[in-house]
Automatic annotation (TrEMBL):
<comment type="pathway">
    <text>Sulfur metabolism; glutathione biosynthesis; glutathione from L-cysteine and L-glutamate: step 1/2.</text>
</comment>
<dbReference type="InterPro" id="IPR006336">
    <property type="entry name" value="GCS2"/>
</dbReference>
<keyword id="KW-0317">Glutathione biosynthesis</keyword>
<comment type="subunit">
    <text>Homodimer or monomer when oxidized or reduced, respectively.</text>
</comment>
<dbReference type="GO" id="GO:0004357">
    <property type="term" value="F:glutamate-cysteine ligase activity"/>
</dbReference>
<comment type="function">
    <text>Catalyzes the synthesis of gamma-glutamylcysteine (gamma-GC).</text>
</comment>
<keyword id="KW-0547">Nucleotide-binding</keyword>
<dbReference type="GO" id="GO:0006750">
    <property type="term" value="P:glutathione biosynthetic process"/>
</dbReference>
<keyword id="KW-0067">ATP-binding</keyword>
<comment type="similarity">
    <text>Belongs to the carboxylate-amine ligase family. Glutamate--cysteine ligase type 2 subfamily.</text>
</comment>
<dbReference type="InterPro" id="IPR011556">
    <property type="entry name" value="Glut_cys_lig_pln_type"/>
</dbReference>
<comment type="similarity">
    <text>Belongs to the glutamate--cysteine ligase type 2 family. EgtA subfamily.</text>
</comment>
<keyword id="KW-0436">Ligase</keyword>
<dbReference type="Pfam" id="PF04107">
    <property type="entry name" value="GCS2"/>
</dbReference>
<protein>
    <recommendedName>
        <fullName>Glutamate--cysteine ligase</fullName>
        <ecNumber>6.3.2.2</ecNumber>
    </recommendedName>
</protein>
<dbReference type="InterPro" id="IPR035434">
    <property type="entry name" value="GCL_bact_plant"/>
</dbReference>
<dbReference type="InterPro" id="IPR014746">
    <property type="entry name" value="Gln_synth/guanido_kin_cat_dom"/>
</dbReference>
Length: 476
């Protein structure tokens, strides 16, 4: 989740002005980049809980670390101290809540999700090889500092053992607003905030037409990504019959701002139509003079039309307000000045790389994008919406036509492979092409178990029903 800024104080005078704000994201092909974000759950390592000198003595093994003391706050500060040329601190009411990249890390950020899920928002990079290097460097930097605190990190889609009450809250003002509002609009919003982790990729577009085609293809196929990356089969220590409980949670978080908006497949879809949809997404907050004002549930459209609403009296809507507002919309593919693919569970480092590889191959090569569009347009929009409801439980075995989603995934991967081969981005050191990062997904399409199915095999086999074993086996 992005940190709000509301830096542009230009008053809004028309919807066209807001559409132009999105259109400013159009870039020439040689400027297209790949930005990968991933989240992971912190946990207290078992050896750190015993002995007077243990960093987490007295704590419970595998518990979620607190913000402070000896928790997430300390890790952020130590990471800043270890690489002072690469990071500056991000504060909320004087408390460190993240790091902003500078120098060699420019464009990247480290932030906290509501229960302390640790997120790397990667820099916009030219190739998947650059992304792999960034990911490896991040783990190498965080791992020793976390170990000194007795902590580890596990990238999973839904927390496998903790109850909601077990989870701490990070001191971010935005999350306090969402915490109060979420139970009013859905049954699982607090679960989304405190007990889910994702991996996503942010990709560019060249024009409005290019954006439309990319968004329609990626929105329709997002449920396939959910099935491929399913990695959350446990809730509070037990299987709950879902392969992606994270995806299930999103079906009743806040449907006014999430899901697969129907407008995406309307004939007049474009920047202005997306703005029109976003204006009806209920507001969370506005920023003024560094202070966040709670306006949860208010209408941005009504505010723009000059209608009186509690909490907004005397404030004029600005472009910065709308930019902040866009970060509070959570569709499966989110449009800002780039496109965010949001349908996958967090997973292993190999799967973290497979996610950007999949979408880069599909969307960054013209022939691949056209082939993906032909694949998508063969079925009505409503079929993909229905698919989104089914894949959290059935995964790749979800029926699709005369076969299953596994067949659809195989077709999707074949197109992506062609797209990456056409990009022909070869790593100078290893002399490998970008398509190598699709290997885990190719295995899945051929019948290998998903991450969720692998963990269930472990649970019913060598773990003998102890889901906590997942933490050390999935640790990065």
């Amino acid at each position: 989740m992005s940190n709000p800024g509301a830096s542009d104080t230009t008053p809004i005078h028309s919807i066209a002005q807001l559409a132009e704000l999105l259109a400013q994201g159009c870039k020439p092909r040689d400027a297209w980049r790949i930005g990968t974000e991933h989240e992971k759950f912190g946990f207290v390592r078992p050896e750190a809980t015993v002995g007077a000198d243990a960093p987490q003595a007295g704590n419970t093994a595998y518990a979620t670390p607190p913000y402070a003391p000896q928790g997430i706050e300390t890790l952020l500060r130590n990471l800043h101290k270890s690489e002072p040329d690469d990071w500056t601190s991000v504060l909320d009411d004087g408390r460190i809540i993240g790091l902003k990249g500078q120098g060699e890390a420019a464009g990247a950020a480290i932030s906290l999700e509501p229960a302390g899920q640790f997120e790397l928002s990667g820099a916009p990079l030219r190739t998947l090889h650059d992304t792999a290097e960034e990911l490896s460097n991040h783990f190498d930097a965080v791992r020793p500092l976390a170990r000194k605190l007795g902590l580890g990190f596990a990238p999973l889609g839904f927390h496998p053992t903790a109850t909601r009450a077990d989870q701490p809250w990070m001191p971010k003002t935005r999350y306090g607003i969402m915490r109060d509002y979420m139970p009013k609009v859905g049954t699982m919003g607090l679960d989304m905030m405190q007990r889910t982790c994702t991996v996503q990729v942010n990709l560019d577009f060249g024009s409005e037409q290019d954006m439309v085609r990319k968004m329609q293809v990626s929105m329709a196929l997002q449920p396939v990504a959910t099935a491929l990356f399913a990695n959350s089969p446990f809730v509070e220590g037990k299987p709950n019959n879902f392969l992606s409980n994270r995806a299930r949670v999103w079906t009743d978080t806040d449907n006014a701002r999430s899901g697969m908006p129907a407008c995406v497949f309307e004939k007049d879809f474009g920047f202005e139509r997306y703005v029109d949809w976003a204006l009806d997404v209920p507001m969370y907050f506005i920023m003024r003079e560094g202070r966040m004002h709670n306006v949860a549930g208010r209408s941005f459209r009504a505010w723009l039309n000059g209608e009186r609403q509690d909490g907004l009296e005397g404030f004029t809507p600005t472009l910065g307000d709308f930019e902040d507002h866009l970060t509070t919309a959570f569709p499966d593919v989110r449009l800002k000045q780039f496109l965010e693919m949001r349908g996958a569970d967090a997973g292993s480092p190999e799967m973290m790389m497979a996610l950007p590889a999949l979408w880069t191959g599909l969307l960054y090569d013209d022939s691949a994008l056209e082939a993906a569009w032909e694949l998508v347009r063969a079925r009505p929009w409503e079929d993909y919406v229905k698919l989104r409801e089914l894949v959290p439980m059935m995964g790749l075995d979800t029926p699709w036509g005369e076969g299953t989603v596994r067949d659809l995934a195989a077709h999707m991967l074949s197109i992506s492979m062609d797209g990456l081969q056409n990009r022909d981005m070869v790593d100078e050191q290893s002399q490998t092409s970008e398509w190598v990062y699709l290997a885990p997904l190719t295995a899945l399409a051929a019948g290998a178990p998903t991450q969720a199915e692998h963990w269930l095999e472990r649970y019913y086999g060598p773990w003998m029903g102890d889901a906590s074993r997942i933490f050390l086996e999935s640790e990065v």
